[in-house]
Amino acid sequence: MFRSIALRWLASFIPAPVTVRWQERARSCLGALLGIAFTGGTMFLLLGPTANIPLLVAPMGASAVLLFAVPASPLAQPWSIVGGNLVSATIGVTCAYAIGEPVLAAALAVALSICGMFALRCVHPPSGAVALTAVLGGPAIHALGYRFVLEPIAIQSAALLVAAIAYHAATGHRYPHSGRQARVAVTPTNAANPTRDSFTRADLDAVLKRRSEMLDIDPDDLESLLRETQLQAFSRSFNELTCEDIMSRHVVSISADTHTTAAWDLLKRNNVKALPVTDTDRNLIGIVTRADLADRRGVDKPAPFTRYLEGWLRGDGLRTPTVGNVMTTEVCTIRTNAPITDLVPIFATHGHHHIPVLDASGHVAGMITQVDLIAGLYRQTGDTLRQAA
């Protein structure tokens, strides 16, 4: 018993595998290189080579690790580095002045800095080193007094932050990081009314509150990860049926030069709400719905003079506009061999109601609606229950 506990305890010291791709690792290393170089260069230009102020302080290296290697961390956000470093520098200088014993002053400076960062919501681990530097930095640092807060800490923190923002923007990375954007991207439209197997943001907040400890991940990011995990588990359970199995194979398509009145008649005659628009090679170039035709043309009633005037201003003259004038060209599609679970985020997040299904050649092979998806899920659930029985 004791041996197994000891082995588990020792195993906790083994580092977890790093799943970061090598491209991201290289991007982080290059960012830190440029960020530190920019920070030191900024200090050199502002203060000159003969200044008694260090061009770089050691905590900036630790800050660079956070800003360039883990920019999504709450500990690496702009307010964390600026607020945390300034608070810790101020506390460190104060402790150095007030307490003659260096070790006691250093310990108290770090402890008070943590308290201050928690209070101001700017926890930044390298800021603890800033407090230590203010106490143990030697005569050159002590001679600066509270000027140490501005020069070098404030200037170097701002320079490193500017470098991080510019570098992440140039390399297509989101920084400052806002978890709300990722949350919106994967949160279903009915997340406020969850099923028994789902969860709400209130559930997540309650669990985080019970833990009563700080986690190095934004709650919005955590919610997004959990919802993506739900979709992955859902996909694993319902990955036997493909879109080809549930799609409507009888698809009526039209060309872009079809008149809107003819398209409207075709929609009503086939009792459908959307028609794929294809070219002469049967490649999908758009989709037109009843809403497109009704909003732009008013085809179900005589067109008044104002509608003709709008058409003339659009360049249509007094002619009836064609489908190409009103169709949606950015069409969300799916392949015939895709599992039906791939449809869930499309319908739930993007608000689509009709998804064209393309075959291996890129031609329209069918159409899937929300009703088709529900029927497919019901069918798969029934098969699963029968197998379990």
UniProtKB/TrEMBL annotation:
Residue ranges of domain CBS in the record: 247-305, 327-384
Entry superkingdom: Bacteria
Spans traversing the lipid bilayer: 29-47, 53-72, 105-123, 130-147
SMART domains recorded: CBS
Cross-referenced Pfam families: CBS, TM_HPP
Swiss-Prot/TrEMBL keywords: CBS domain, Membrane, Transmembrane, Transmembrane helix
InterPro entries: CBS_dom, CBS_dom_sf, HPP, TM_HPP
PANTHER family: TRANSMEMBRANE PROTEIN DDB_G0269096-RELATED
Protein's recorded name: CBS domain-containing membrane protein
Taxonomic lineage from the root: Bacteria, Pseudomonadati, Pseudomonadota, Betaproteobacteria, Burkholderiales
